[in-house]
Amino acid sequence: MVANDILIFNEIPKGKPVPGQTTVKKQEEFDLDQSLPDGAILVKTLALSLDPYMRGRMRDESIESYVPALKLHAPIENFAVVEVLRAGENAKFQKGQKLYGYSKFQNYSVIPKEQAESLRVLENKEGLPWTTWVGSAGMPGQTAWYGLKFIGKPQKGETVFVSGAMGPVGQVTIALAHAAGCKVIASAGSEEKIKYLREELKVECAFNYKTEDPNKVLADWNQKEGRPFSIYVDNVSGAQLTAALAHIARRGRIVAIGSVVDYHGEQHGIEGVFQVVAKELTWEGFLVLNRMTPELFEQFYAEVPPALASGKFARPKEHVTIGLDNGEAFAALFDSEASNFGKAVYSFE
Amino acid sequence: MVANDILIFNEIPKGKPVPGQTTVKKQEEFDLDQSLPDGAILVKTLALSLDPYMRGRMRDESIESYVPALKLHAPIENFAVVEVLRAGENAKFQKGQKLYGYSKFQNYSVIPKEQAESLRVLENKEGLPWTTWVGSAGMPGQTAWYGLKFIGKPQKGETVFVSGAMGPVGQVTIALAHAAGCKVIASAGSEEKIKYLREELKVECAFNYKTEDPNKVLADWNQKEGRPFSIYVDNVSGAQLTAALAHIARRGRIVAIGSVVDYHGEQHGIEGVFQVVAKELTWEGFLVLNRMTPELFEQFYAEVPPALASGKFARPKEHVTIGLDNGEAFAALFDSEASNFGKAVYSFE
């Protein structure tokens, strides 16, 4: 018997999630020697991903949305890396293997056959931390990769504007844009993040959207550069999206990733959408899991993890919480003042 | 010598154009026997197109935009059908030929060599009225055709929602959508237009956006049909665009054509753009003249004029003004209460 921490979805939040109310940690006993149902495996969690889209799952189950609701009073679920402790009767797995995919927010889990077989075995020849496999080498990295490659379509010499740039999608977007020979304008919400963007991620232009007018920053960049930026990777919507529409180049591409504000159910009118016509823009959203075919997964894993390991891409900034808390790490995703920043993860190593 | 009516761009409008102020008709003498510069041709105007985008050209020349400014105190210009009265020294043309392209708003014109050679000879084997060659078989028809075909990508059984449906782009969109096996939801701003849409253009659902809530109409349609509409051809922006974002299907396509409101410089915030992500929408604008390659022109002329002539596409509704006025016909484009409706043209036949 071992102690098993579990993070429970306890209450539907109004607005921002509240640790200890929206989410509550409880502890149960877990029998490592329990008998396993046919094909099920028993795993230990190594890393769990915390992502803003999870807020959208914390709703009444009767409300339809683009992602299923989380089950109230049940464990939170999201992308994870787990280690096989017992493969049971399932010949596809072996003890010691590391697997990537959906799992419960608990130290130990029994994963039923069908779900287990949807997980991907990580060889990790690159030697990346397990947390990175749920971040830059996981779903957020795939989001940045798919969006920039297939919607942004960067050409050498273009400039890419990315908002929410210190988030996990933003960081990989910056690395991919630089690798494609593009310059980067990056925005974030604190001076520490701006410093990191400038000094560690080497962006050509970084600005704090809370203290600087994005319209002025973008207009100045376009003026200085002699040509306007042509790709906007939008992680935030709102005023930065309005500014991007006003200043993006003709035939520009808007990669719609997310909107921190809208996750809380607020509505922000976007002005100037006539620019979609006047500048012949393409504006496209996507849910990465609906787009990643087996071939694209292979291509992603062949490109991105090696680039992260070799240092070709800047080492991702992660905000690691050791072991489960009451949801403080999740709530911090919605607090742009949080002094810790980077991809939010729980680690159990 | 003949009398030549000329419509002059007289004054930059604030808001809607005012006949007799924004535009003024004057009359000059025109020498039909004048000597022609090298390669120039002398033509008589048969049809002139009046389009909302022309409002955007009525600005101070120092303001950059997606279409060049019209020259103040000079004749208005737009798409036209003209007849060659004298081909002069230009061996590419013959007396009696009908030509399509840009021309001045006057009864008679001398067209310089280079501009003349940019005009397309219309054979009109289909026997369409010349006015139709600047409407359903002209730029507005090409806009509908390109937008629906390459951005909307209609599949049999889908529903297409088109706003500004009695405009020239809307009418051709309806015909093309029906030809593709789609149903059509169409909106317009008067009961007469709604009647025409239902009875003549046979749309499956028509509504007056001034008296009906587009959100309710679209939600009811989706409910009744058992699947949501999946293409929105947007001629108006504003509240109908917001409603379309809320009710369009996943993987929907928004074909951005125009925004009557924005032509006057007003700003309307669009809510719910997060749906671009949540529903994985594609939203794309285009300027048809930048997209129509010679191959696409051939394809368009092979498809659309014969379908109009054969009755496969509903006969387009045109609002014909005989001879030039002081700009009343242009101003009426921006008056949704106007009792005459359909593609606005001047005819000189």
Automatic annotation (TrEMBL), chains A, B:
SUPFAM superfamilies per the UniProt record, alphabetical? GroES-like, NAD(P)-binding Rossmann-fold domains
- Keywords per UniProt: Oxidoreductase
The molecular function GO annotations come to: oxidoreductase activity, acting on the CH-CH group of donors, NAD or NADP as acceptor
Which Pfam families does its entry note?
ADH_N_2, ADH_zinc_N
Enoyl reductase (ER) domain span = 20-346
Q: Does the keyword Nucleotidyltransferase apply?
A: no
Q: Which PANTHER family match?
A: PROSTAGLANDIN REDUCTASE, PROSTAGLANDIN REDUCTASE 1
Q: What is this protein called?
A: Enoyl reductase (ER) domain-containing protein
* Species this chain originates from: Rhodotorula taiwanensis
Classification from the root reads:
Eukaryota, Fungi, Dikarya, Basidiomycota, Pucciniomycotina
